[in-house]
Structures are given as C-alpha cells and as structure tokens.
Automatic annotation (TrEMBL):
Protein name listed in UniProt: Smf/DprA SLOG domain-containing protein
GO BP, sorted A to Z: DNA-mediated transformation
Region of interest: Disordered: 371-394
Species assigned in the record: Streptomyces cinnamoneus
Residue ranges of every copy of the Smf/DprA SLOG domain listed in the record: 84-294
Family of the protein in this entry: Belongs to the DprA/Smf family.
Signal peptide: none
Biased composition (Basic residues): 383-394
Pfam families: DNA_processg_A
Superkingdom of this protein's organism: Bacteria
Length: 394
C-alpha cells in the first residue's frame, strides 16, 4: 500500500494503460463507476462487460489481454529508476483531475523530482516541429528565462520548438518536463534520445503509455491534453493553422489556464496559427518576464517597457518649452523665444541660461540658437566645445 493506493489497484491501473487508449472518456467513466480492479475483469472477459461497451471494443481489449503482465511492466520501469503514479497518491498532480473522465489512468514517470510540486509552478512551451531559426531561438530564450525565474518548462520533446525549449531550460541549470506520446523507455523522436535521457536525469519524463508503447498520430493529440492540464499556462511560439500546438493551447484555454502566443512575421505560415490564436483572445508575450507576469503570483511583474531616454527628456517643463521655442534656423532674440514659449521674459531667460549650461543652446550677441548637436541628434554639444560668447545684456 502506498499513499491510499493498494497493490491491487496499482496493478489494475497499470494493466488498463495497456488495455485501453489514453484519454478515452468511456473508459474514464467505467473506471469511476466500477473501480480499476473490476474494470480490468470486465474488459478481459473475467466479469460482465461494462455498460454500453461495444463488442469490437471488448474484442480489442481481450486481444491485448493475451500478453498482459502489469507486474512485468512495473518491474521494467523500476529497473529504469522510474515508477508508476496513480491518482490519490501524494505525488499525483491534482490539476490533471480537471480533465474529468479524460484524466490519465496513471502516469509512468522517470526522474527523481516530485511531479506534483513541479507541476504547481510550470509553463508549457510548445510549437512547430519544422520551426524557423527565429522560432528555435525564441523558444530557447523562453526556456532559459523561465528556468532562471524558477519556473518548470514543460513540453513534448519533439523536434523544433519543443526541443529548443527543453535545451534552454537545461542550459540554464533549470527544471524541465517532457511528456511523451510513447512509453518512457521509448525515446521519440529517435534523434532526441540523448536529450530525453538528459531530461530524465535533470528533470522528469512522463507518459501515459506503458513500457514499450509506441506513438501514433492520435496519441500525440491526446498527449497534448496532459501538457495543457498539467501547467499554469501554455505558450505557443510558432504554429501553422493545423498544428497540434494549437490543440494544446485551446485545451488549456478550455481548462481555464493562461494561453499565450509569440508573434512572428505576418508573411510566415509558421506564425499564422499563433496569430489566429491571438485573435481568439490569447495574450501576446515576447519574453519570460511577460509570461511570469501572467501565470505567476502577485508581484511577479514584467519590467516597464520604455524607449531610450535622451537628455532633453530630463529637462524640467519650463526649460523644455524654452528649448522647443528656439527657432531652428538662425535662432532668435529673447522676445521672440519668450513669445513662442508662451512664458515671461525673465523665466525664459533663466531657462535659456540653464539650457546653455547643459549645452543645448548658444548665445551669440542678442540672439539665442540651438547648439549644433542639439539641432541634429537631440544630444547637447559638450560645453567645453562651444564658441566664446560675447558679453552683454540680454
């Protein structure tokens, strides 16, 4: 017995991951009504069939039952240093319960971290497999930036955006979780075998399929619901209109999670799906700070975005008005500048002398004109380089 789940239920749930497909709501309903042990009996012919079960479904389950050995599956995972996690155990991430009858029967896990605790502060970063260099770069930046801020990066270990996000988190010495559409002992894609092994060492690898399970198109789609439910929010970096990443994001939105998208060129088909998601109400994000602001706790605010500050931005209002009132060509006398500024002569004169000390204007006899640098770039000319000024009254 472990955390409210006895050995019989653990074996039965492990058997169900081999007898049935992930995310089957009919199976979820039967499991809720009958319990794991009785459902295994019902699906394998050892007991009455579940209510509403079609003959072809029962036939398929009984065919799979010919090689059923949940004890061997549990032993195989244990040899990998893994475990099988069931609902009701202390480590079970409760947010997966939001999936209702589509909730995973159990999770096959590799990695020593606590799944429930890591999921509490996690963000999914997903996107196109055939992404652009831009998409790969952005995904890696988001992965590393989120990891540096103490967030767990969750993705599907696929080529493209997924892999870049995982690598970004790993490079920052952070936490990352790969949710596979295969068994945890079957790295897919094969080209990411080394990456998935690194994630298992430094983070977590999760799967609904038992050892030896191979991915199919439908299993990839169903896997996405786990990524959406497990995390606080989903960020899509690049995606075409029919991308599975959009399925993840829309499922996240339906579950009440934050849905975010990174914009790209409007001429790129790989950004078209993200832009559609943004039109549907997803939040536009450009970096890890903005993601953390949306999914984090009170006070996790992104820094204020401002353009560069130029010297004239720091002037007090009177000096700024006087500077704007100095004619651009040839300058002008005090009376003209005061009239242009809408200020009295004394205040205008005081402001002009302040501007002269700062290098914004020059005085030539009775006229005031913009310093050369001020008239071209908005930056004052260094005071030491100004020409000598004739002494005299205003």
């Amino acid at each position: 017995m472990s955390g409210g789940v006895n050995d019989a239920e653990r074996l039965a749930r492990a058997a169900l991951t081999r007898l049935t497909e992930p995310g089957d709501e009919h199976v979820g309903r039967w499991l809720r009504q009958l319990g794991a042990v009785e459902l295994v009996r019902a699906l394998t012919g050892a007991g009455p069939p579940p209510e509403g079960a079609r003959p072809d479904r029962l036939e398929g389950c009984r065919a799979r039952a010919q090689t059923l050995d949940p004890g061997a599956d549990l032993a195989a995972v244990a040899r990998l240093g893994g475990r099988f996690l069931c609902p009701g155990e202390p480590e079970w991430p409760g947010q997966l319960d939001d999936l209702g009858d589509a909730r995973p029967i159990g999770l096959w896990v590799r990695g020593s971290a606590n799944v429930r605790l890591w999921a509490l502060r996690s963000v999914a970063v997903v996107g196109a497999r055939a992404c652009t260099d831009y998409g790969s770069h952005v995904a890696a930046l988001l992965g590393s930036g989120l990891a540096e801020r103490g967030w767990v990066v969750v993705s599907g270990a696929a080529f493209g955006v997924d892999g870049a996000a995982h690598r970004g988190a790993l490079a920052a010495g952070g936490a990352t979780v790969a949710v596979l559409a295969s068994g945890i002992d079957v790295p897919y894609p094969r080209g990411h075998a080394e990456l998935i092994a690194r994630i298992a060492e430094q983070g977590l690898v999760l799967a609904e399929l038992p050892p030896g399970g191979h991915p199919t198109r439908s299993r990839f789609v169903l896997r996405n619901r786990v990524i959406a439910a497990l995390t606080r929010g989903t960020v899509v970096v690049e995606a075409e209109y029919r991308s599975g990443s959009l399925v993840t994001a829309r499922r996240a939105r339906a579950l009440g999670r934050q849905t975010m998208g990174v914009p790209g060129p409007v001429t790129s088909g790989l950004s078209a799906g993200v832009h559609e998601l943004l039109r549907e109400g997803a939040c536009l994000v450009t970096d890890a700070d903005e993601i953390a602001e949306l999914v984090g706790s009170i006070g996790e605010l992104a820094p204020e975005r401002r353009g560069p500050v130029v010297p004239r931005d720091l002037l007090e209002p009177g000096a700024r008005r006087a500077l704007e009132a100095v004619p651009g060509r040839g300058g002008g006398e005090l009376a003209l500048i005061a009239r242009n500024a809408g200020m009295g002569r004394d205040r205008t004169l005081a402001s002009l002398y302040e501007l002269r000390a700062l290098g914004f204007v020059e005085r030539l006899g009775d006229r005031w004109q913009l310093a050369d640098a001020a008239s071209t770039s908005g930056t004052p000319k260094p005071p030491g380089r100004r020409p000598p000024v004739r002494r005299g009254g205003p």
